[in-house]
Amino acid sequence: MKAKTLRVGVVGFGFIGPHHLEAIRRVPFADVTAIATSSEQSARRKAEQYHVEKAYGDWRKMVDDPEIDVIDIATPTHLHAPIAVAAAEAGKAVIVDKPMALTTVEAEQMLEAATRNAVVHAVTFNIRYNIMVQEARARASSGEIGGIRFVRGHYLQEWLLRNTDTNWRIEPDMAGPLAMVADAGAHWYDMVQHITGLRIVRVLADLSRFIHTRFPPEGSSASEFKVEVPDFGLILCELENGARGMFATSALCAGHKNDLTIEVCGAEASLEWRQERPNELWIGHRDQPNQVLLKDPSLLHPDAAAYAALPGGHNEAWSAAFKSLMLNILTFIADGRDPSEADEISFPTFRTGLDVARIIDAIVASSNAGGQWKEVKR
C-alpha cells in the first residue's frame, strides 16, 4: 500500500495533455493536482473543466510549488528541455511526452540534469505498452521466432492531406526539422528496439515534401505558410545483429487515421502488430497455418498477460497502454526507488529518449548527405 497520493502537475493541455491526465487518474495512488498552460485564464478554464485544484499561467510557478511531486510535460517539443531541466533542478520527478527534445544536445542536457539531481525521469513511449506489443516482445526475446532478420512497418495518417491542413508539428521551430518523421516515427524507432532488444545502428533516409505551401482555411485571417519540413519519409535501417529494417511515414495518406504497423521477421516465425487492430497479433509460419492471436491473458506470455486488466473478449487499446505506462512510472516513484535502477523495459527513461534523438540525428545527416548510410552516434 502506497504511503501517500502522488501529486502530479501537467504542463500543456492541448491534444495530449488531457490523455496524460486521464492515464494518471487511473493510477489509484496518483492524481493531477495542477495544470499549467500558456495563460492563467486558459489554465483556470481547463482546471475547472477537469476538476483540477490548481491552475498556473506560468509553468515556472508550478515547478516552484512545493506540493507538486511530479512534473508531467505535454507541451510542444520546443518547450520540453527548459521545463524538464528546471523540474529536475527543483528535485521533482519528470515525465516528458515524446519525442523527448528538439535536438540531441537538449536531450543530453535533460538527462544530465535529471541524473545530477537524482530524480526519476521518463518519456511517454506509451504505444509499446499495448498488450499485444508486449506479447511480441516476449516471443522475440524468448527466441521463439529465431534470430531477427528483418523489421518493417509504417506510421500513416491523413491529417495533412489537404493544403489547408496545418499544425504546430510542421513548424520546425516548435517540432524540429523532421516533423512527422521524428514525431510519429519516434514511436516506431522505439518499438523496434523494445521488441527485438536490438539497437538501430545505421540509417538511410529519403525525405520528400509534396506540399510546399499551405493555406489558411476559408474565413481564417492567417496567412499562407511555406513548408520547410518533409511530409513523407522512407527510412532504411540496420540493427546491431545485421538485420535490416524499412519504415515509411506520412500524414498525406487518405483513410489512414492512426495506422502504425510493425512486423518482425525471424528465422523461425514472423510477428505483426497493427495499432488500428490492437488486440490482435499476427504470427506467420512456414510449416503450419498462420495464426491471429487475440488478446486473452490466459493465452499470453506471463510478461504480456500482466498488462491485461480485462479477460479475453474485452478489448484494451491506446488509453489502456497509456495507463499501464503511467502505472509503471508512478509506482517506481511512489516506491522511492533509486532512479539509476530503472531498466528501460518497465518504462523508458531519458536514456531511451536520448537514444531515439540520436537515431533522428542520423536520419537528418543521411538526408542532408543525399541519402547515404549514416551511423547512429552513441
Low-pLDDT windows of residues: none
Q: State the helical fraction.
A: 25-40%
The name of the CATH superfamily of the largest domain reads: Dihydrodipicolinate Reductase, domain 2
What is the gyration radius calculated from CA atoms?
21 Å
| CATH level 1 name of the largest domain | Alpha Beta
Strand order across the largest sheet: 16-15-14-13-7-12-11-8-17
Q: Indicate the structural class.
A: alpha/beta
For the largest beta-sheet, the strand count, sense and barrel status come to: 9 strands, mixed
- CATH architectural label of the largest domain: 2-Layer Sandwich
How would you state the average pLDDT, rounded?
96
Share in β-strands = 15-25%
CATH topology of the largest domain: Dihydrodipicolinate Reductase, domain 2
Structurally, the number of domains stands at 2
| Count of alpha and pi helical runs | 12
Helix-strand pattern: EHEHEHEHEHEHEHHHEEEEEEEEEHHHE
Which geometry do the CA atoms define?
A: globular
Number of strands: 17
The end-to-end span amounts to 40 Å
Account of the 3D structure:
This protein is α/β, with parallel strands linked by helices and 378 residues long. It has 2 domains: 6-127 and 324-348, NAD(P)-binding Rossmann-like Domain (Rossmann fold); 130-315 and 358-368, Dihydrodipicolinate Reductase, domain 2 (2-Layer Sandwich). Helix content is 31%, strand content 24%. The protein contains 12 helices and 17 strands. It has helices at residues 17-25, 40-49, 59-64, 80-89, 104-116, 131-141, 172-175, 180-183, 185-196, 302-305, 318-334, 350-368, and strands spanning 6-11, 30-36, 54-56, 70-73, 93-97, 121-124, 148-156, 200-208, 213-214, 225-226, 232-239, 244-250, 259-266, 270-274, 280-284, 291-294, 374-375. The strands form 3 sheets. The protein has a 9-stranded mixed beta sheet. A 6-stranded parallel beta sheet has the order 3-2-1-4-5-6, sandwiched between helices. A hairpin with a 5-residue loop joins strand 14 (270-274) and strand 15. The model has no long low-confidence stretch (mean pLDDT 96).
